[in-house]
Amino acid sequence: MTESWLTQSGAPQSGAPPSWVDGNELAGALAEVFAVDVTTAQGVCAGCGRMAPVAETRVFDRAPGLVARCVGCSAVLLRVVRGPDRIWLDLRGMACVQIAMPGTGGASPDGPGA
Ligand SMILES: [Zn+2]
């Protein structure tokens, strides 16, 4: 939240404000690609193995496109660049993405009952 780096007077607490926003910033760009809300997905960082919701990543939006970094090790998890007629999606920083899907009513062989 933006208020965390502002004092009551509105001045920055310690120098520059954070240059990132949270992973919810990705929702709009990725909604065009995926049929599900990817920000609710769990991503595993290829760098440190940390598993966290995509919405909790740190998204740097001052570069061309959006760059999502791991909160644990700052590695780049995901990059997305939207051009006028195409989108570039770089997911190499994520070892795995777990997306919750509606139940099929069938057996869940290894579901932990989450
Ligand atoms: Zn990491």
Description:
With 114 residues, this protein is mostly beta strands. It has a domain at 18-95. The chain is 5% helix and 29% strand. It contains 1 helix and 8 strands. It has one helix at 26-31; strands spanning 20-22, 42-45, 51-53, 58-60, 66-69, 76-82, 87-90, 94-98. A 5-stranded antiparallel beta sheet has the order 1-4-5-6-7. The chain has a 3-stranded antiparallel beta sheet with strand order 3-2-8, with no helix packed on it. The protein is globular and about 55 Å long. Mean pLDDT is 83; it is low at 1-12.
Helix content: under 10%
Largest sheet: 5 strands, antiparallel
Cα distance, first to last residue?
28 Å
Order of SSEs = EHEEEEEEE
Tally of DSSP β-strands: 8
- Structural class by secondary-structure content: mainly beta
The unreliable regions are 1-12
Strand order of the largest sheet: 1-4-5-6-7
* Radius of gyration of CA atoms, rounded to a whole number: 17 Å
Bound molecules: zinc ion
What spatial form do the alpha-carbon principal axes imply?
Answer: globular
Structure described in brief:
With 114 residues, the chain is mainly β. It is built from one helix and eight strands, in the order βαβββββββ. Helix content is 5%, strand content 29%.
Task: List descriptors.
single chain; 114 residues; mainly beta; 5-stranded antiparallel sheet; 3-stranded antiparallel sheet; 8 strands; globular; disordered N terminus; binds zinc ion
How would the blueprint of this fold be written?
Layout (H helix, E strand, L loop, with lengths): L19 E3 L3 H6 L10 E4 L5 E3 L4 E3 L5 E4 L6 E7 L4 E4 L3 E5 L16
Antiparallel strand pairs: 1-4, 2-3, 2-8, 4-5, 5-6, 6-7
